[in-house]
Design goal:
Blueprint (H helix, E strand, L loop, with lengths): L6 H6 L18 H24 L1
Length: 55
Amino acid sequence: MTPSRPRTDFYSGNSHTNYAKLVVDEAGRSAISWLGLWLTDTINKAGAEVERDSE
C-alpha cells in the first residue's frame, strides 16, 4: 500500500510544529487550547463518576 502523500510532506510542513497557532475547531481554538479544555472536561467527568460511585 502506497500512501497518497509521502512522509516527507508531513515532516516538511508546519502544521505539526505550530500547535499554539493551529485552529482546530469552529470556535477558533488552537490545538493547545482545545486539548486543555478536553483534558479538563474529561478529568472533571471522571471525578464526578468516582464521586457518584462512592455514594
